[in-house]
Amino acid sequence: NIKLHDLKLYNSFSDGIYLLFCENIEVYNNFISNCQHEGFYLSCVNYGLVYGNKIAGICSDAGRLDNCQNCSVRDNYFFSYNGESYGQYKGGQAGLQIANAGSSHGYNAANKPQFTNNVEVTNNTFADPGRQAIWLHNYDGNVYVHDNTFVNADVLETMGIPIGDISYTNQPSVELSEKVFSGIFDILDMEFTDSGRTEQTADNIPLQVTENTSGIIAGGVKIVGVKDKIVIDNVSYIPDDQAVLVQTKVIQNPDLDQWSGTIKKIEKNVSVKIKNGTAYTTLKVKTSWYTQKKDSITGKSKKSKLKTSTATFTDTYSPVPEILTRPSEKKGYINEYISKSNSNTRVYVNPEGLQKVVYEYGGNSSTHTFLVGEKKADETGILYTEYVQVNSWDGNISTFDDSIIIYGDFDPNKLKVTCYTPYENFTVTDFEHNIYNMKKNTWISPQTAFILKLLLMLFCGYKLMRVIIPP
Predict the structure, then answer these.
(1) Other CB atoms within 10 A of residue 424 CB
(2) Which pTM was predicted?
């Protein structure tokens, strides 16, 4: 449960970040430059997420993963450091190295408790990395490399971004380096979020309705996409059928430009339903109108009786993502262990279907996060959220596994547990509260106590028989 984020790490003659034998770690939003071993180095890490970092590597690797499992490296920018090198070989680094560590300075890989497996490398930008952009070697597990961007130095130069050496008298301060590479960083304009709600409406999308004529009305309806879409493990979901984005347009029929009538009122009703992966929308229009005719005798205009007309327009859209099944309530579990010297209470909620759980107790809180989302936009400009699965704790209440731990006497009135799905949140009100009194003989279970008593009786009976009937 380690998070390293929003750091500026410069001019180190070893690793900028080194994490060894860790679980549930996040490394994000860091700027790392001129670290003359590894920019970041993960070894024997299980469940790690590295994202949103900008790393200028030299000599060794901008990033490295040895013997890591269930880790994702995404949305990072890897490029070369070209400032004063102090004798180190510029351009000698790989962008990212992934392997099972071999023998190095007498340390053998066999001493490491796990091997590379289930590592994902996606949506990163590798710009002039030096040697290999991604160096994969000496591994036999699953490494998934997909949807990355590779840019060489020539392409960067055409973007007007200087790549040449910074002089000895103009060494790369934090401010100078960020200024030099500010154009590159615009590539990674990312927004991270917990919620799958985007607040986007059909009005945010360029109008796509095609008008059709129907009597005195010209109009149309168009499904332009779905809002609040989320992606988990490459499967898309929406919250409900209200996520369908529908545009409508209704005007007087342009073909009736010489029409003497007047439309007094237009009522629109839009309905949407989803069936078998297809969205259907219907626009029903009701108009109230009248005509005017000049009386040949009086010369005055006379209105006709108010009339009504209706028109119906339809559209379909497929495929539509499936609706996300998610809980609207959860049961919490409180296990209270009372002893003379070390009373403690554990509280947890089954995390299935949740984005995170926030535990609050006595003014303190801890958050258990299961999904981290990134806001993206498709080619039509519709926003969606792509989630990465994590298992991370953050806060000042002690935790163990899926539970918070409260030491000392427990007061249920001080506890509040809030569950979040990608779309809603709710407070847990139903708790199963178990109390285990460790002050009594509850250090063993009743079943164990019975077995021990039975064994003791058998042993005493055996000794008595040996006295009555000597061997």
Answers:
(1) 15
(2) 0.57
Task: Measure the CA–CA gap between 152 and 158, rounded to whole angstroms.
Answer: 10
Query: What is the C-alpha separation between 51 and 77, in angstroms, rounded?
Result: 9
CA distance 9 to 456: 66
| Cβ partners under 8 Å of residue 465, min gap 6 | none
DSSP assignment of 391-409: EEEEESS-EETTEEEEESS
C-alpha to C-alpha distance for 244 and 214, rounded to whole angstroms: 25
In angstroms, the CA 75 to CA 149 distance is 10
Instruction: For residue range 235-245, list pLDDT tens digits in order.
Output: 999 999 999 99
Give the mean model confidence (pLDDT) for residues 341-368: 94
**Average pLDDT estimate for 111-119:** 85
Q: What is the pLDDT of residue 471?
A: 63
The sign of the CA dihedral 201, 203, 209, 215 is positive
Span 297-322, pLDDT tens digits:
776 777 888 888 899 999 999 999 99
**Phi, psi dihedral angles at 461 (to 5 degrees):** -65, -40
Distance of CA 157 to the CA centre of its chain: 34
Instruction: State the pLDDT at residue 229.
Output: 96
The Cα–Cα gap between 322 and 226 comes to 11
Q: Ramachandran region of residue 303, left (φ > 0), alpha (ψ -120 to 50) or beta?
A: beta
In 3D space, the residue among 171, 163, 142, 195 whose CA is nearest the CA of residue 79 turns out to be 163
